[in-house]
């Protein structure tokens, strides 16, 4: 905790750590961003430091995570903590499937003190006998299932059981999750021994002795997130509404926009670029090194806006691993059982869940998430570590029903009828006039980012990121300065974006009161005040510092010959049929 400069434990840590320190198995549900990682790392490292290892070689702690990204993040958190409290110890991950069996065998043959990996990789080592003899026996102090709900929704249950079968009976087990379900309870009953179940809810603290909820003393463990819904007239308007929210400064930076696929991420990125809103995109088809680097840069504050694809269909690792599971199934699976398994898997994307995006003030859901659990995980990327945040979900008419279902699930989680109605409020800071004023430009720009443009942009993006990735692989550890030069928010457009779109005249930004134009929002709440402050900020700064803007201008626009030719006086009138140029 000292190493991470954490002054006081969060309510989750206060509830979980003492129980775990007593050696009890723990199954804890605690809100996103409430510090679950340290809640299991502290007792694990404490146990490891308290006594010498019973075996010469073998992991002393195993952390199972649903994705490689989360494994990487957890390994780093563990290594950072170890530097202070256990300098002689080592935290490590297992290599990806594509690295091959020999590499996996070699790594597992001399495992680190704390091994962090997805269940499939650990199960493969257990099945193949790659760990040193007795490695999962007396020397192993603790097995942790981090993000237990995601582990189950990604279809890892058989691998988890396989790992637990290989582990010595009586090894301490900790399960931590943001949501609780019947499946988690069933798994808990199979793998844990007389576990203490702890539920840390939003308004209450926990009596660690009993593992029961009780009134807290001012500590607020749950995320402080304001939930808003933005009902849009038609699904096609999503791009327009997101652009309006970001461009008019109605949501506080840093903002994270969730979309449902890599295609949608690239499309939104292309579209926002046209309006002078540089964003980086995170999706499963990017090389792993690039994903890690993008995340690090976003957390460092290099980018204000990120578009993240929450779609595990495009997520290399879980799909690959799940396929491996299917192949290795003892019973020959039928086509139907395979399909069922895939369907059961949550439709969410592994890269973005459980990841500690830092200092995100706003999460925007481009579409309504598929399940209430998915909603909780997505919006949980803001309001972390005691900070406040805002979540805005765009709801198209066709999504009203699924949105209502999510709303009622969230409401029942609150448990109080009055509070339940207040969980989600309509976002009324974006006047219809403001949207209408931008509509014409947006529709024009949306047409320019059709299927072909997206396809081409994705090829360019992949090429660019593969190059980045190679450089990253070579320099990751030693040349941090070089890394800073790699940019992930540059334009992906084939032709330079037209400069006129990125400049919004004052009347479109709501600066002047004019019929049909955006009005400045009255600051009648903290959110609105923040929005207004930010709005003014945007007007002055025009998205980024002068230096940054100059750099972007140079890189993104360049001499736009196409626009110059097109808008030559004579040509323009003839082709456009006399449309007004001022648009
Ligand atoms: N005691 C503490 N005081 C302040 N910040 C903390 C404390 N413990 C952890 N944090 C910070 O809180 C953030 C969220 O922590 P963590 O990722 O462990 O949350 P989580 O509950 O696992 O979230 P999720 O369920 O979304 O994965 C991290 O940035 C972490 O550094």
Automatic annotation (TrEMBL):
Biased region (Acidic residues) positions are 318-329
Question: What are the EC numbers?
Answer: 3.6.4.13
Check the record and name the SUPFAM superfamilies matching this protein: P-loop containing nucleoside triphosphate hydrolases
Say yes or no: keyword Hydrolase present: yes
Which of the seven top EC classes does this enzyme belong to? hydrolase
Query: Which protein family is named in the record?
Result: Belongs to the DEAD box helicase family. DDX56/DBP9 subfamily. Belongs to the DEAD box helicase family. DDX21/DDX50 subfamily.
Q: What is this protein called?
A: RNA helicase
Q: Which organism does this sequence originate in? A: Ostreococcus lucimarinus (strain CCE9901)
| Taxonomy of the source species | Eukaryota, Viridiplantae, Chlorophyta, Mamiellophyceae, Mamiellales
């Amino acid at each position: 905790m000292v190493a991470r400069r954490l002054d006081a434990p969060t309510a989750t840590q206060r509830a979980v750590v003492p129980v775990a320190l007593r050696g009890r198995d723990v199954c804890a549900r605690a809100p996103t961003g409430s510090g679950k990682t340290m809640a299991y790392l502290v007792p694990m490292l404490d146990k490891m430091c308290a006594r010498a290892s019973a075996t010469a070689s073998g992991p002393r702690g195993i952390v199972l995570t649903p994705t490689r990204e989360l494994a990487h993040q957890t390994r780093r958190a563990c290594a950072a903590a170890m530097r202070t409290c256990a300098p002689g110890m080592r935290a490590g991950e297992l290599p990806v499937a594509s690295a091959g069996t020999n590499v996996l065998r070699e790594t597992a043959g001399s495992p680190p003190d704390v091994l962090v990996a997805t269940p499939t990789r650990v199960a493969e080592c257990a099945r193949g006998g790659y760990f040193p003899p007795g490695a999962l026996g007396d020397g192993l102090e603790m097995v942790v299932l981090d993000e237990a709900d995601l582990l189950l929704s990604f279809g890892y249950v058989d691998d988890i059981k396989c790992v637990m079968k290989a582990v010595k009976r009586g090894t301490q087990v900790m399960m931590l999750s943001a949501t609780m379900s019947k499946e988690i309870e069933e798994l808990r009953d199979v793998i844990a021994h007389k576990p203490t179940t702890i539920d840390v809810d939003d308004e209450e603290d926990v009596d660690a002795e009993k593992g029961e909820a009780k009134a807290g003393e001012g500590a607020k463990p749950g995320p402080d997130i304001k939930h808003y819904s933005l009902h849009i007239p038609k699904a096609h308007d999503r791009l327009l509404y997101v652009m309006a929210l970001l461009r008019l400064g109605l949501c506080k930076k840093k903002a994270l926009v969730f979309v449902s696929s890599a295609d949608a991420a690239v499309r939104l990125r292309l579209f926002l670029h046209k309006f002078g809103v540089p964003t980086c995109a995170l999706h499963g088809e990017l090389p792993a090194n690039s994903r890690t680097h993008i995340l690090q840069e976003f957390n460092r504050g290099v980018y204000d806006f990120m578009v993240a694809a929450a779609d595990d269909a495009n997520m290399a690792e879980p799909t690959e691993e799940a396929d491996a599971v299917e192949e290795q199934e003892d019973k020959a699976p039928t086509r139907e059982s395979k399909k069922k398994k895939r369907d059961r898997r949550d439709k969410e994307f592994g890269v973005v869940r459980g990841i500690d995006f830092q200092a995100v003030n706003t999460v925007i859901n481009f579409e309504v998430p598929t399940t209430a659990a998915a909603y909780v995980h997505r919006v949980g990327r803001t309001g972390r570590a005691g900070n406040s945040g805002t979540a805005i979900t765009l709801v198209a008419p066709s999504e009203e029903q699924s949105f209502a279902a999510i709303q009622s699930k969230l409401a029942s989680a609150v448990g109080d009828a009055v509070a339940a109605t207040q969980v989600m409020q309509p976002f009324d800071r974006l006047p219809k006039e403001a949207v209408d004023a931008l509509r014409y430009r947006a529709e024009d720009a949306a047409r320019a980012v059709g299927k072909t443009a997206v396809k081409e942009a994705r090829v360019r993006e992949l090429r660019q990121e593969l190059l980045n990735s190679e450089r990253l692989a070579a320099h990751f550890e030693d040349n941090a300065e070089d890394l800073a030069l790699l940019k992930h928010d540059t334009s992906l457009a084939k032709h330079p974006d037209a400069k006129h779109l990125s400049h919004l005249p004052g009347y479109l930004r709501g600066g002047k009161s004019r019929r049909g134009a955006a009005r400045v929002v009255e600051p009648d709440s903290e959110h609105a005040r923040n929005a207004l402050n930010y709005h003014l900020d945007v007007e002055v700064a025009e998205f980024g510092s002068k230096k940054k803007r100059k750099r972007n201008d140079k890189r993104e626009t360049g001499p736009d010959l196409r626009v110059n030719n097109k808008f030559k006086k004579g040509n323009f009138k003839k082709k456009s049929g006399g449309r007004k140029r001022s648009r």
